[in-house]
Amino acid sequence: MSTLRIARPAIALLTGAAVAAQVLTGVPAATADTAPVNVTVNTRAGLAAASDTAVGTNHAIWDSNLGTNETADLLKAAGVKMLRYPGGSYSDIYHWKTHTAPGGYVAPDTDFDTFISGAKRTGAQPIVIANYGTGTAQEAADWVEYANVTKKYGVKYWEIGNENYGNGHYGADWEADDHADKSPAEYARNLVQYSDAMKAVDPTIKIGAVLTTPANWPDGIVAAGDQATWNDTVLSIAASKIDFVILHWYPPYNDVADVLTKTAHIPDMIYLVRKQIAKHAGARAGDIGIAVTEINSGIAPNTQPGALFAADAYAGFMEQGVFTVDWWNVHNGAGTISTVAGHTDYGDFGMLSSGTCSGDTCEPPLNTPFAPYHALTMVSAFARPGDRFVRAATDEPLVVAHAARRPNGDLAVLLINRDPDGEHQVEIGYAGFTPAAAAPTVQTLTNGATSVSTGHAGTATTQTLPPYSLTTLVLHPASATTGAPAAPGQPTASGVTDKTATISWPAAAPGASPVAKYEIHRQNGAVTEQLGETPGTSFTVRNLVPGARYTVNVVARDTAGRVSWASAPLTFTTGTPDESSCAVRLTDTSDWGNGFVATVDVTNTGTAAVDGWTLHFTWPTGWQTVSSGWSANWTQNGTAVNVTSTPDNGKLAPGASTSIGFVGAYSGPNILPTAFTLNGTPCTAQ
């Protein structure tokens, strides 16, 4: 869950109880199907473009190899483009002018200038954490002046603090914080001061605010004395002063197989964060980026599961437009030793060996790459800066797919086999792309491999995935498409109601022929459905479902039939009817991070009395359930929830209301339902 300050020279990482309590000694075998796995790649379903800082990692001042040429060259070879400094929770005790961290260990030759030198050699941008816990806004402003005015390093990204919600305000206390008031409101007020002071020195820098990650502690919790959660409080005060928000993700898990499934949470996680930003930032919301500046599997971090998790998570976050994902850590040190899938796992959260020992077991020599290092190498080659991700999906939970199109017309596909024992044959189908017949270039990382292998194997439509493997294909188009129009600009939505939305977009630049029309495509997994077409640059979509989330793309087609690549995606959620014979208000009254108490007020807003009612809603995700309920009869089938009245509250006269409630549980991002029907009639959500 979080990195802790270390009060000894040895490099190590302490994590939350959920991480520390888990030791894997084996993974249950899964039987591979004899039928091929169907993979669908749809270039009409565009996602985010890969940023030039997407693949990153963390450096720490207690690492004596920070900034060494050997380390920098290894990171450069892996395609690392962002380096974070000075290291997790140490950031809130570190004073850059004296290069000291009272209560912690600072290794020789790890000062800021050494870090910058290593970052330059790596070819990575720095992201620096200003000391919030024991520092001041002036100290941070002086750092900006030294970095960007005196030394002209051009450090663009600055975080204000590390995991400041871990200061004891919610119970757990690992993050240094000398402020008497440790509330999110106090953090936000000081964040504003830091931003003002730092931007007075260099107005071009980007300031980042610490947020909690949806469905990960302490997200959703309102502490004593607060009026709202950490995220709502911080954003309500400081949204106008920040340029990005910061998430850390060490997913809770039961075992290795479980942690590999948690990447399915990423789209909803980022969706919720964007909703929170939009709620408080208004017109600025689109200018506020999202950074995941710490991430690790937390289990089997040195062996193949760590690599599978890393590749899947990096690709998943990049698809959602996260501008950097930073592995914890470059070096970290041996922890609990275990055997994972036939190989020794050192419990080391670093991507490179520290050459340390745990008991009688010693790691391989210093800077030996662990499996996640190779995964980042593959991700860097798979999705390069400027490539646009497109939808890819499979019909087998043990096989995951990602895809990205390149400006030159090529297409890259990343295939992840999470089955520890069985290989899987895959058959790949493409929409909007016809691959060349030649065998594609294939990169593979297999269980226990010490490097990524590259060659030509299989075909563009058939591949064999070894057990526990990463495979990337780079495909050329069957024929070069010249003269096609450029992709339309970023779509926006306006006039969104319960059933309609107007989609508008900047016109596509024509190619060899004029643009004839635009097509609007809705994403449904890796399948798209065309919602309409128009010769103009705006289209009103009708017959939408109330309270539903839609992601759409626009493509241009010219008079010669050439089709552009898909635009960037637009996601919007429909509302509920402005007028109805019923109204429903769902309120989360108490949340504890994986469950909550909700009250549901049902009102008859019609002109006729109701004698017996059935309320219906659908959970937005598959990891939300009704644990128990009261004042009604509650049942759940799949994600569908039906609630029927009791003899005491079944009769509702016009204008009358009844209040019912339930205990909900969730194991992923908790997106509350917004669409309800009463006796089949869509209700207004209040």
UniProtKB/TrEMBL annotation:
Residues 487-579 form the Fibronectin type-III domain. Residues 575-686 form the CBM2 domain. Keywords: Carbohydrate metabolism, Glycosidase, Hydrolase, Polysaccharide degradation, Signal. Residues 1-20 form the signal peptide. GO terms for molecular function: hydrolase activity, hydrolyzing O-glycosyl compounds; polysaccharide binding. It comes from the Bacteria. This is Alpha-L-arabinofuranosidase.
